[in-house]
Amino acid sequence: MAAVTQKERSAKSARKRVANAEEELRLRVRPGTRQASHSHNDRAALARVVLKRGNSVNADLTKTFKKQ
């Protein structure tokens, strides 16, 4: 088994952060109903954290996008 480089570890860590952020946003919306289970302010606060990390968030605050 080859050693994992720093770049590969960073990429894996970045993928995990994006996945966790998307999961948090998904948990804020009831599946199938598209109704917020928490306030818009809660989702906006999460979106601000994602944006500070350099990723994008869609206008509905339901999905994150990685940097290009």
What characteristics describe this protein?
single chain, two-stranded antiparallel sheet, 68 residues, mainly alpha, elongated, 2 strands
Structure description:
There is one protein chain. By secondary structure, the chain is mostly helical. The protein contains 2 helices and 2 strands. The chain has helices at 6-27, 40-52; strands at 56-57, 64-65. The chain has a two-stranded antiparallel sheet. Strand 1 and strand 2 form a beta hairpin. Helix 1 runs antiparallel to helix 2 (40-52). The N and C termini lie far apart (30 Å).
Chart the SSEs and their pairings.
Elements: H1 6-27, H2 40-52, E1 56-57, E2 64-65
Antiparallel strand pairs: 1-2
In short:
The protein is built from two helices and two strands. By secondary structure, it is mostly helical. The longest helix has 22 residues.
Count of helices? 2
As a percent range, the share of helical residues equals 40-55%
**What's the count of strands?**
2
Strand content: 5-15%
Low-confidence stretches: none
Mean pLDDT: 77
The ordered string of helix (H) and strand (E) elements is: HHEE
Q: What does the main sheet amount to? A: 2 strands, antiparallel
